[in-house]
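[Primary structure, fold]
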Amino acid sequence: MSILSQIADDIPMPVILLDSATLNLLWINQSGQAWLGSSLKTLSGKALPDLFANARSLSDAAEKTAGSLMPVHIHDLLVLPRGKDEVKCEVSTFAHEGHVGFYFTRQGRQTQIDDVFGDGASSLGRLLAHEIKNPLAGIHGAAQLLRDDVETEEALSLLDLIGAEIGRIRRLADRMERLGDVAPSDFTRINIHEILRHARKVIQSGLPSGIVFTENYDPSLPMALGDDDSLTQAVMNLIKNASEALGESNEKPEIKLETSYRAMGVGLPIEIRIIDNGTGIPEHIRDKIFHPFITHKPQGQGLGLALVSKIISAHGGAVEVRSKPGQTIFSILLPLSQRVQS
């Protein structure tokens, strides 16, 4: 539960953890406390019917997950917290360390729903943005001082990379400060190959030199329509994920970055592939790898792929995964907008 509390307090949506036997509340994040209007101390130990007036659907979903350890998803559920207005949500369950949890995502853009979820998310976003931007200023200043002392082209290139990443993270922090979220908001014409090259340079700079990167891009692909910063974050998460899957015992660790035009992709012809020759994803979690808190890494948090899925869905795209021992392929599929021409 300590790992959950460390990561889920940073999520701008309500997350609740229950005892799998009694379905009594064990833990709730800051957004959930703001939504229900009570502190963790007050809510701890309460049963689902004490929290929600229409708890039957939630109880049924929690019992299914407790028994099978598989997530349950409920779309367009009207959730009625005690003493609050009902909220239309997408509700998903997850298993965590022998317990069962919920996370709630608002549906639609109704003012009522925005009000219920908005306070906790916005305040959390402002707090996180403040904590992120403070060290960024110091890093930027240090990089500027180093520029006066370096002489090699390689060192200058690394400083340029640091400067570009500082700018990207600062823009994401500004968005969190305004909205309490990192959802894409500024769609422009973008070159996905430039995004891939930048993401590769950033991740590769912090990896062992023995990992080989191979790039094979289709130069005929048109410009895409998307948010540069968030797509960069999604690609970086997948490359980082691939590097962590390689393992120390791999004699020839390799990550391939590829693009192509998928003619058979219905409405999603632009394909980005991140391929590694690591151990593969265990079969028992393969079909739920994009759900929050699902991971097979000992120190993993289970949020990186969930963020990737959220970002790509916001672009009208999809993410696919194929995995077996010795090869894992993550494919990002993006639509060809009518406004984008080659």
